[in-house]
Amino acid sequence: MSGIASSRLQALTTERGHQALAQIRLVATDVDGTLTNQGEFDDSLLAILEKLRSAELPVLITTGRSAGWVSGLLHYLPVGVAIAENGGLYFTKSNRHPTFLQPIASNHRQLLLQQFERLCQRYPQLVESSDNAFRLTDWTFDVAGLSLEALQWMTANCHDHGWGFTYSTVQCHIKPLPQDKASGLTQVMAHQFPGLGHHQVLTIGDSPNDESMFDPAQFPHSVGVANVRHYLDIMAHAPTFVTQAEEGKGFRELADLLLDLWVA
To answer: Is 192 helix (H, G, I), strand (E, B) or coil?
Structure first.
């Protein structure tokens, strides 16, 4: 993939940033590295999410985390919809059963395991993620300690065997080829927010598994929290805007700007 110059990212405080934020009716955000600070939610997150909901700016979660993890998360956070497994399925507050966004065969998990074992033949140190048992559409293992060369080889090997591959700050994902956050979000919008256009959605993330949401041909208004800069050299699509702060502090910075526009 071609690298992207960090200097091309625009600040949200520019006139273009204000114009973009003024169009937003839905916030679609990643979790790890975007809502978290050093792996945890801080005490300001619930208040921010509640303020956005009260301002009629609903927040939708779209994460690579497992179906089981996301089902629990949705129960506790003031959000109405959550997409799990990088676009594989979603839950709503009113329907806690998963709605699949990709067709899944009865032996799907066995086929994912076979692909994981292919990767292990070259990289026997791979460690299955602790939440892998709670997944339905993908297979994950820990990203820690893997080089860019290893990740690129895994991407190619998965594609050669008919699978997609992506990774975040915490995990690598073996998944169906068409499965990504942008396609999942598009389907969920059609089901849950049929009156909204893509230009009314703000997509937010921090790492390669958010890259599809940074594609301006799909979602023209995207934001990376500042730690996204660590990945720009290996991403084909960069966010349109970037926050000054990293991780959850960057999300809070963005939320404050949105609330200033909508609550004023």
So the answer is: helix
How far is residue 186's CA from residue 163's CA, in Å, rounded to a whole number? 21
At 30, list the tokens.
């990643």
Asked whether 140 and 173 are in contact (CB, 8 A), the reply is: yes
pLDDT digits (tens, 9 = 90+) for 150-189: 999 999 999 999 999 999 888 999 999 999 999 999 999 9
CB 173 within 8 A of CB 184: no
CB-based contacts of 241: which residues, under 8 Å, 6+ apart?
9, 10, 11, 12, 17, 20, 221, 222, 223, 224
| Residues 87, 60: Cα–Cα separation, whole Å | 12
What is the amino acid identity at position 61?
A: I
Mean pLDDT of 48-76: 95
Distance CA 211, CA 182 (A): 9
- Whether residue 7 has pLDDT greater than 60: no
The phi-psi region of residue 86 (left if phi > 0; otherwise alpha if psi is between -120 and 50; otherwise beta) is left
pLDDT value for 5:
55
* Residue 15 token pair: 């006139």
Interatomic CA distance for residues 172 and 102, integer angstroms: 19
- Can you tell me which residue has the tokens 């979602």? 219
By the 8 A CB rule, do 69 and 84 touch?
Answer: yes
In DSSP terms, 139 is beta-bridged to: 174
